Amino acid sequence: MTTPIFILVDPQMGENIGATARAMMNCGITHLRLVNPRDGWPSEKAHAMSSGALDMMPPVTVFETVKDAIADCHTVYSTAALPRDMVKPIMTARAAAMDMQTRIKNNEKIAVLFGRERSGLSNEEIALSHTLISIPTNPDFSSLNLAQAALLVGYEYLMARYEGIANYTPTGKSFPAAQKDFDELMVRLETDLTAQKFFRVDEMKDQMMQNIRNLFTRAQPTDQEIKTFHGVISALIGKKIK
Amino acid sequence: MTTPIFILVDPQMGENIGATARAMMNCGITHLRLVNPRDGWPSEKAHAMSSGALDMMPPVTVFETVKDAIADCHTVYSTAALPRDMVKPIMTARAAAMDMQTRIKNNEKIAVLFGRERSGLSNEEIALSHTLISIPTNPDFSSLNLAQAALLVGYEYLMARYEGIANYTPTGKSFPAAQKDFDELMVRLETDLTAQKFFRVDEMKDQMMQNIRNLFTRAQPTDQEIKTFHGVISALIGKKIK
To answer: Residues of chain A with pLDDT > 70: what percent?
Structure first.
């Protein structure tokens, strides 16, 4: 198994199970187990809320106890606050995601427990887990529901696998202009601006052109945009001369 | 303003506005603007879905156009896919969060545009923004709703500000044991195990004790746990001897 298993303990409303499944699938997490769902399983309401996620997942499995649900797993995380006087590592969702990645690469089977909508997990259930996951939120308004908690844990897991590019500028069919073409545009602009008597004080010319050049380097125009801007200048001059 | 402003463009259902407000407040983001909400503003359904978030925020402001809504902002991000033939930077939500942090420290006012529930943002609206935000999701099931998208962008913003500890083990009233106390437990265990003839082959003794010591160092017991374990050994010996 290449992703963690999410386990919902005593979930009450089918809607919450469905919304959680949708959040999981958005993050590529496909294994859902339920402990003792109040309204039974399967659930029409869950299916409706899952936006098709439940149909794409392997069948959800149902257990009577948390112990049964985690029996085949090697490492168990709980999304819960640490009870007083328990000694157990706490990781942010981000740190836990890195930890899960490492363990899954090592062929461990990983489970994440999510507690009851209102009362969370019992101390006995928390004691079964190796690590607690803490999701940083606003200390003045901390009100994550089940599906939101699953989304954030799942998202961090996805991001820990993510090898995409964090920041780039696609240029479609065009391509960032070669520097000689860029420079040609700048020289042409300077020539035309001089002809149009843009530079009233000659000593300021270099400084002003440097500023203009900086503006254009920040934009890093493409070939196509260089052509377009030549057209813009021609049009503007035409207008003025006319 | 120390956080970004979230702007919902033509939001349809009040419930979605409320769920978005709740997601925002979880991340400490308090400024919400609406462009042209279909069912008007204020909205009872939005208030009910916000779990109190809307009551904690400064009043939501309503605008007729995106241009009006962003007029006082310096940098505008759009949560949208890049239209063909537009040249604009794309950042992951995580990279965008770092970028927002930097700009906000520089006193810029930052806006994030979220599009219509079904049809997203128009090309004209996207063209008004400086940067597109891409939220990595499962390529086979990418189905984030408005509030989920707001939660993930907000969460990354919160995490970019987060200075908490990623991974630690609180020990409550107790404290990780001093090495002399730990060593005393190991020596006592070895003595008792020897007396109980645990080490059948004498040459293996050092190796086995090293393995046992490694198990206990991984757990890094507290003072209290060292005491408890002395008690466990005494009890076990008592039982055996009896």
So the answer is: 98
For B128-142, give the DSSP string: T-SEEEE----TT--
Q: Which residues of chain B have pLDDT under 50?
A: 241-242
Whether the CB of B121 is below 8 Å from some CB of chain A: the reply is: no
Q: What is the DSSP string of A56-103?
A: HSSPPEEESSHHHHHTT-SEEEEESPPPTT----EEEHHHHHHHHHHH
Taking a contact as any Cβ pair under 8 Å apart, which residues of chain A between 175 and 194 contact chain B? none
Return d(Cα A126, Cα A165) in angstroms, integer.
Answer: 37
Sign of CA dihedral B34, B38, B41, B43: negative
Nearest CB partner across the interface for A28, out of B91, B138, B144? B138
From the number of C-beta atoms within 10 Å of its C-beta (0-12, 13-18, 19+), residue A59 rates as exposed
Q: What is the 3-state secondary structure (H, E, C) of B86-123?
A: CCCCEEEHHHHHHHHHHHHHCCCCEEEEECECCCECCH
Q: Are B21 and B46 in contact (CB under 8 A)?
A: yes
Nearest CA to B189 out of B214, B213, B223, B217 is that of B213
Measured between CA atoms, the residue of chain A closest to residue B97 is A166
A143–B contact, CB cutoff 8 A: yes
CA distances from B39 to A55, A125, A148, B17, B187 (A): 33, 45, 26, 11, 74
B84 touches chain A (CB under 8 A): yes
B192 to chain A, closest Cα gap in Å:
27
A239 and chain B: CB distance < 8 Å anywhere?
no
* Dihedral sign (CA A99, A100, A104, A109): positive
Nearest residue to A108 (alpha-carbon basis) of A134, A70, A150, A161: A70
ipTM of the complex: 0.88
- pLDDT tens digits for A86-104? 888 999 999 999 999 999 9
Give pTM, 2 decimals.
0.89
Strand-by-strand arrangement of the B167-168 sheet: A61-63, A31-35, A5-9, A110-114, A75-79, A131-134, A90-92, B167-168
Give the gap in angstroms from C-alpha B202 to the nearest C-alpha of chain A. 33
| Nearest alpha carbon to residue A167 among B74, B4, B99 | B99
Using the Cβ of B231 and the Cβ atoms of chain A, whether some distance falls under 8 Å is answered with no
Q: How high is the mean pLDDT of chain A?
A: 92
Select the residue of B22, B94, B159 nearest A136 (Cβ to Cβ): B159
- Under-50 pLDDT residues of chain A: 241-242
